Amino acid sequence: MDLELRGIRKEFPGVLANDDVSLVARSGKVLALIGENGAGKSTLMNVLSGLYRPDAGEILLDGVPQNFHDPGAAIAAGIGMVHQHFMLVQIFSVADNVVLGVEPTTVGGVMDRKRARAEVREISQRYGLAVDPDAIIEELPVGIQQRVEIIKILLRGAKVIVFDEPTAVLTPQEVEEFFGIVAELKSNGAAIIFITHKLKEALAIADDITVLRSGKVVGHADPATATPEELASLMVGRDIDLSVDKAPAKPGATVLELSEVTVTDDYGRKLLDSVSMTVAGGEIVGIAGIQGNGQTELVQAITGLLPVETGKVLFQGRDVTKLNPRKLHQAGIAHVPEDRNHMGMVGSFSLSENLILDSYYSDQFSKGLQLNRGAIQESALALVQAYDVRPPNIDNTGDALSGGNAQKMIVAREFSRDVPLVICAQPTRGIDVGSIEYIHEQIVLKRDEGKAILIVSTELDEIFSLADRILVMFDGEIVAERLTSETTPTEIGLFMAGNRS
Amino acid sequence: MSDHIPASDPDSPVITEESLKHNRGFVQRLTTSVNWRTGILIPLLSVITALAIGLVIIVLSGSSFSEALEAYGALLQGSVGSIKAISETLTAATPLILVGLSVAIAFRAGLFNIGAEGQMAIGGMCAVFAGFTFVGLPLLVHLPLAILAGIIGGAIWGFIPGILKAKTGAHEVIVTIMLNYIAILFVGYLLKTSLFQREGRTDPVSKNIEGSSALPQLLDWINPSMRIHAGLIIALLAAAFIHWLLFRTTVGFEFRAVGANPAAARYAGMSVARVYVMVMVIAGALAGLAGGGQVLGVLERVTPGFTAGIGFDGIAVALLGRSNPAGVVAAAVLFGGLRAGGQQMQVSTDVGIDLISVIQALIIIFVAAPTLISSIYRLKAPAASMQISKGWAS
Predict the structure, then answer these.
(1) Inter-chain contact B266–A305, Cβ cutoff 8 Å?
(2) How many CB contacts within 8 angstroms connect chain A with chain B?
(3) pTM score, whole prediction
């Protein structure tokens, strides 16, 4: 089934989210839709899936105009979405999840599990998905969970399949397998829309690329001839240098040292298993790994948010294992947390309040109980200027910032402190290319000032462009350590998948 | 190793991320930055709509339309129609301001203080005890002492749910509801003991407070029946103080941060547990002050049920006032007016004062469901579009 969007326009108060957007996805082809956050990709997909009604424009399936009143209508017409965050009931089986909402029943409304299982098995075999209908979702790796989502939409008769950032949570090996599945879907005649901001993947898998910027289609590219740099420039509207310029590291004295740090959860499962590592001044250490292999816990253990059970954390030679977050902050650890909305800022607070979130009590910003509003505003103004937070209105709430600017605000808060250790977890997750470029520069700048930098990222590209030394985490352990200059993404990818060095 | 979460550590993660997330949505919606729309327009339309429905109810219950209008006339007359009426309105508003602040400050820190009623009861008992126990003290000593007793009583009753939440994760809603029962029944019990019960009485009624501990009347020089008392000034000062605390101090900064995003607060080095305890103590103190004010300014003694549901009305006041001190004062005056006017309406027409409770409840339903009001008045829905532009805005 061919899908065509013609002149889609969608306006929200104050923002024109989609402006005369037209695109075509053909049966048996993959269309990659790329664009920065806020370019209007999500709005467009919400229009396509019947969540929003467009203000103008048409959706055509095989040339027939459609009118989706609700998501149900879009699904019935053959449009299936695989969301970035899976919509699965964790404690249900695969088959139960797949038929959720369209349960086959026997006489009297009793759910027909046998048929559900058979249907899952049938689809799974036809597309080579290899999914066990009786497995429980929470016990499955992310890559398999994604296949369950695919089976779900196939069961509902999807002919046009939209993948929203499908590779964000996958290992490099799982990405390969995912590409295989896409090829299988293609050969079965599905029209595929692949939303991504990973330019290399778009180039690898797509038959056609459409670029969105500020709600408009700004270009098409042929994957056979286009380069990542060209696509990035199209996305942001100016020339982009994707490589990070940096001189070789000159590691100094050890600033952070972990020795056999172990953390367990309430059930006695080891979240961190005897982790030992060091970070020296003047170097960037990158922690690579698939999300959920202990990186979050590692950062929380260092910053005092998670109690260390055994082992030691030494900061500048001093044992800081038992200190709380406030004490560690004062000792000189800056921390850009991995989840900026959930942890890095208070959405309803103004920029000036967010910029003092962890230093409001200091002599600079308060006298006794009373906050020093003059000093707070003055500092906030200087920071939004220095770190290019846009719009630079310090009375706006954090919620009002785009992802990239929110992250720049958090970086401003943490980097403006002259401290020996900076920890950045997922410093550029889900933000626009321009902000990524800027934050990467700032990180390298900090290193060159002689600070110790610890980066955690699930983006292998980011690890390779920033880190001087790479540690790979798998299942709560550090399974490999390499100098960046002496390894390859393929080797690190294997470690990420659990191979030992 | 099981010693990694020492029970005495105030930062111990008994309050799990999960439990933190739980409360957030609703509370946050009630306390996010006040703007013209959510702070003024929606509450105003809620009040108007509730009054209109009240009118319909009167008519449906058998009165003619003109009788219904007459009832509303009496309501208006009884709330603002004379100095006496205004005095009654403000007298009723006084404790409402304080319990409203009590609920509001807890809201700001992400907690539901359903326990203002109980905190008020305990505060009132402590105040009346201080009021009748000390004889022969000068007013300048005795009155502050009695007020302080009320504050401390309420603070203790607020401390209990606070510390239980901080140490064990016990949900403050459950604990404060239970403490309400305990407080109210405890008051009933104490009133039958010789410590409190007035000599020569068999019914549960406390001794009268000494004149030296009574809050001065403000307008009795015009007419001795004017009940407005100095408690109003205290309540307004309390509102100013809470405003200062919330928006001008490091403590308030912590309260608001914990209320809006406890995970971020913890990341920023704040002790979420300590904030929970502190805010519940302050909330309890405010409600205790409300109870003390009633005893020392109006009632002069304690009888069972002397709190008269004012503590529960505090929840409504805080909701209507968007947990903003100025808004709380305005909402308390409105509810005070409804109470005072309702009395007049009951006396001079057939319409009972229970209608006032219905109107109050309707107001809260509308305030809590702003999209309902938006759709009734065809206001452009902001909630959905705001979320969309959030994901969008560049």
Answers:
(1) yes
(2) 114
(3) 0.80
Contact: B392, A42; criterion CB under 8 Å: yes
Q: What is the CATH number of domain A3-236?
A: 3.40.50.300
What are the residues whose beta carbons fall under 8 Å from the beta carbon of B105, sequence distance 6 or more? B242, B245, B246, B255, B279, B282, B283, B286, B323
List of chain A residues whose C-beta atoms are within 8 Å of the C-beta of residue B268: 325, 329, 357-358
Same fold, A3-236 and A254-496: yes
Asked if the Cβ–Cβ distance from B249 to A371 is below 8 Å, we say yes
A223: closest CA among A189, A194, A244, A191? A194
Helices (H), A263-342: 295-302, 325-331
Ramachandran area for residue A14 (φ above 0: left; ψ -120 to 50: alpha; else beta): left
Average confidence score pLDDT of chain A: 90
d(CA B91, CA A501): 78
**Do β-strands A160-164 and A79-82 pair in parallel, antiparallel, or remain unpaired?**
parallel
Give the start-to-end residue ranges of the domains of chain A.
Answer: 3-236, 254-496
Nearest by CB: A17 against B260, B267, B392: B392
The complex scores an ipTM of 0.81
Encoded tokens for A326:
């406030």
Report the length, in residues, of chain B. Answer: 394
Give the residue numbers in B contacting A (CB under 8 Å), as ranges: 1, 4-5, 11, 13, 28, 31-33, 248-251, 253-254, 256-257, 260-261, 263-271, 380, 382, 385, 388-394
Q: Domain B17-381 carries which CATH code? A: 1.10.3470
A254-496 folds as Rossmann fold (3.40.50)
Number of helices and strands in chain A (H, E): 16, 22
A384 HSE (CA, 13 A, CB side): 24
Domain boundaries in chain B? Answer: 17-381
Q: Which residue has 């997330």 as its token pair? A: B21
Label residue A476 exposed, middle or buried (CB < 10 Å: 0-12, 13-18, 19+): buried
CB within 8 Å: A348 and B28: yes
Beta-strand pair A208-213/A216-221: antiparallel
Q: Which residues of A touch B250 (CB under 8 A)?
A: 360-361, 366, 369-371
CA distance A207 to chain B (A): 27
Residue to substitute from A343, A353, A401, interface B, most B β-carbons within 10 A: A343
Whole-Å CA distances, A98 to A48, A78, A133, A190? 22, 16, 9, 19
Instruction: Tell me the pLDDT tens digit for each residue of B21-42.
Output: 444 444 444 444 456 777 788 8
What is the per-residue pLDDT across A148-170, written as a single tens digit (0 to 9) for each?
Answer: 999 999 999 999 999 988 887 77
User: How far is residue A285's CA from residue A463's CA, in Å, rounded to a whole number?
Assistant: 9
Q: What is the number of other CB atoms lying within 10 angstroms of the CB of residue A69?
A: 9
Spatial separation of the C-alpha atoms in residues B335 and B317, rounded to whole Å: 8
